[in-house]
Amino acid sequence: MKEKILIIGACGQIGVELTLALRKIYGGENVIASDIRDEHPLLAGTGPYTTLNANDADNTRAIVKKEGITQIYLLAALLSATGEKDPKLCWDLNMGSLRQVLDLAVEMKDERKIKIFWPSSIAVFGATTPRQNTPQLTVMEPTTMYGVTKYAGELLCQYYNRRYGTDVRSVRYPGLISWKSVPGGGTTDYAVDIYIQALKAGKYECFLSENTYLPMMYMDDAIRATIELMQAPVENLKTHMAFNLSAMSFSPKEVYESIKKIISNFEITYAPDHRQAIADSWPASIDDSTARAEWNWKPKFDLEKMTTAMLENLKK
């Protein structure tokens, strides 16, 4: 059957690049991008775009039925640091949008099966989680409302799979690094802004301490992982909560040193703020052996390769 895809939250950090990648695979006309915001400039002219509130169940249903949608990528969310400023909105957006998309898939299952992608995050983990090589199955006691919504969302996805047979797939993204879109209010966003400021100002003040290790991933790997998971045969997938996903783990000091090899006069200072406590509650490294076993996940970018790609593309 021909795939017809709806992306909700297409103008965010992940959404822009995922939309473009899916349009290359399935054709621009078969991937409908939507967001509550105006269309992102990089999406303009590449395929259909519609304004959509992620919590608007009626309009979402109308689009899915009219367009014959077979896959939904639900990316709309309030992230960790931003979510702490308005925890109620974070819960309402992150959980409300997921619930209505899952309900829609159940409602339409006799007409056609809808496959859903919904991203989780390392924010599901907390201070009681093992910080080194965090396992797939472990203690989860998130300390932010964002993390609470992601953990609750994982359980909800697993419930809908077991109760209704809903094909919903998810990964726990680490910090994501991209040159195509601006940071969206996450605790790992320093690892995007540091490259921008290295070129723009030659110096950077980091909001995390120099030896704060966090799992990170270059966006090219994250997009590829997302698509590979969605294309994996359903019979291969035994895990129905989100998959651990990993590529590299580094500290602000290490990314600074990798940039300095290319921009020799680059300077950094450290001024840890409220985001430090969030980072300290998250893993320093991730065990993603389950993803590697069930759908053959393997990253391509390490820190040095990513630094070269970030600086070259940002210069352009």
Index terms:
316 residues; alpha/beta; Rossmann fold; UDP-galactose 4-epimerase, domain 1; 2 domains; 6-stranded parallel beta sheet; 3-stranded parallel beta sheet; globular
Brief digest:
This protein is of the alpha/beta class. The chain has helices at 13-26, 57-67, 80-85, 87-107, 145-164, 190-200, 219-231, 252-260, 275-280, 289-295, 303-315; strands at residues 5-8, 31-35, 49-51, 71-74, 115-117, 120-121, 168-169, 171-173, 175-177, 203-206, 214-218, 243-244, 248-250, 267-270. The chain folds into 2 domains: 5-174 and 218-244, 3-Layer(aba) Sandwich (Rossmann fold), CATH 3.40.50; 176-216 and 247-315, UDP-galactose 4-epimerase, domain 1 (Alpha-Beta Complex).
Q: Could you walk me through the main structural features you see in this protein, from its secondary elements to its overall organization?
A:
The chain folds into 2 domains: 5-174 and 218-244, 3-Layer(aba) Sandwich (Rossmann fold), CATH 3.40.50.720; 176-216 and 247-315, UDP-galactose 4-epimerase, domain 1, CATH 3.90.25.10. Helices cover 41% and strands 15% of the residues. The chain is built from 11 helices and 14 strands. Strands 3-2-1-4-5-7 form a 6-stranded parallel β-sheet, with helices on both faces. α6 runs parallel beside α8. The longest helix is centred in the N-terminal third of the chain and has 21 residues, at 87-107. The termini are far apart. The mean pLDDT is 95.
